């Protein structure tokens, strides 16, 4: 046995001067297995440096502020805003009442109804201010007003419309150079007060309100809606809005510790795979007798047996 070991040693170091091919192979192999995962996760990190994605269920409340524009068959438009009478001239005001029915069993759903004494309605625009709350959206996790615009049109004069409006969080980067500006937690203008009709009735208009909302790069918007119109004509119009916030995936900045943890996990994942492949490759190469010293050793052993 000792002799066998000595033979192995002799073969490794005396066969060729300097580093033998198998030793060089092993050193390069180990370096590849250790360094390649680092290079890979470095390149992965270029894309998503410190982002974590998680699922959250935001909470929804109505701010009791909204502006409803009704368009009639004769081409007129009338305006209603609960509690803000002086938003429009007297001749442009619509006579309406509103009810808000929060669904206490389901915090991300709310129903708002408008009953108006306006006939022959063929379209509406509704600017609703809904208050949203979500972990990390604002630091203190307080409710923040978001403008949700819904509009729909019908071919026929109608007495009612019922709309399901789906709301989602949008995260837009301010520029290519600032990809992290799209990540939660929201800061600055993203959590600044909304341009509510009650605050400045003389200045409020749909265009300015939309500009104010879309200046935010992390905001809630309507993603889509469906409306069922009921045709008819009795001098009244009823609009029912069902707002719904689905559980959504959000992207936020990872804390330092969790990014270290993720990098370590990424490294170990690649390292394990490379180490496994390298190990199998070694087995295969030795079995095939690719390494001259090893086949020489076998020959010596055979010779000794004989
Ligand atoms: C929206 O308008 C309000 C009230 O004028 C203002 O305080 C706020 O900064 C504005 N937000 C943005 C994002 O422009």
UniProtKB/TrEMBL annotation:
| Topology in the lipid bilayer | Multi-pass membrane protein
Q: Where does the protein end up?
A: Cell projection, Cilium membrane
Q: Which InterPro entries match?
A: TMEM231 (IPR019306)
Which residue ranges does UniProt annotate as crossing the membrane? Answer: 21-42
Recorded family membership: Belongs to the TMEM231 family.
Keyword match Transmembrane: yes
Task: Outline what the protein does.
Answer: Transmembrane component of the tectonic-like complex, a complex localized at the transition zone of primary cilia and acting as a barrier that prevents diffusion of transmembrane proteins between the cilia and plasma membranes. Required for ciliogenesis and sonic hedgehog/SHH signaling.
Keyword Membrane assigned: yes
From the Swiss-Prot or TrEMBL record, give the protein name. Transmembrane protein 231
Assign the protein's first listed, main location to one coarse class. Answer: membrane
- This chain's source organism reads Oikopleura dioica
User: What Pfam families is this protein classified in?
Assistant: TM231 (PF10149)
Keyword list (alphabetical) reads: Cell membrane, Cell projection, Cilium, Glycoprotein, Membrane, Transmembrane, Transmembrane helix
């Amino acid at each position: 046995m000792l002799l066998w070991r000595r033979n192995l040693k002799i073969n490794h170091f005396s066969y060729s001067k300097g580093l033998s091919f198998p030793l060089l192979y092993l050193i390069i192999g180990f370096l590849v297995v250790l360094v390649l995962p680092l290079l890979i996760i470095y390149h992965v990190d270029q894309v998503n440096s410190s982002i974590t994605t998680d699922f959250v269920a935001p909470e929804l409340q109505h701010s009791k502020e909204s502006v409803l524009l009704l368009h009639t068959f004769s081409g007129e438009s009338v305006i209603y805003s609960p509690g803000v009478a002086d938003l429009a001239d007297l001749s442009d005001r619509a006579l309406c009442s509103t009810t808000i029915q929060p669904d206490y069993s389901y915090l991300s759903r709310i129903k708002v109804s408008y009953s108006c004494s306006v006939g022959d309605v063929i379209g509406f625009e509704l600017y609703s201010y809904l208050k949203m709350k979500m972990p990390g959206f604002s630091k203190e996790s307080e409710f923040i007003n978001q403008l949700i615009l819904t509009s729909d049109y019908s071919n026929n004069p109608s007495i009612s419309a019922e709309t399901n409006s789906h709301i989602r969080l949008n995260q837009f980067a301010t520029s290519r150079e600032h990809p992290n500006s799209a990540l939660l937690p929201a800061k600055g203008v993203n959590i600044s007060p909304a341009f509510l009709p009650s605050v400045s009735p003389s200045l409020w208009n749909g265009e300015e309100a939309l500009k104010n909302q879309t200046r935010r790069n992390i905001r809630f918007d309507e993603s889509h809606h469906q409306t069922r119109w009921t045709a008819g004509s009795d001098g009244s119009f009823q609009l029912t809005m069902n707002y719904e916030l689905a559980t959504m995936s959000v992207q936020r900045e990872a804390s330092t510790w969790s990014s270290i943890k993720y990098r370590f996990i990424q490294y170990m994942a690649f390292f394990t795979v490379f180490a496994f492949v390298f190990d199998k490759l070694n087995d295969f190469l030795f079995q095939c007798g690719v390494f001259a010293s090893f086949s020489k050793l076998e020959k010596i052993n055979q010779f000794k047996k004989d």
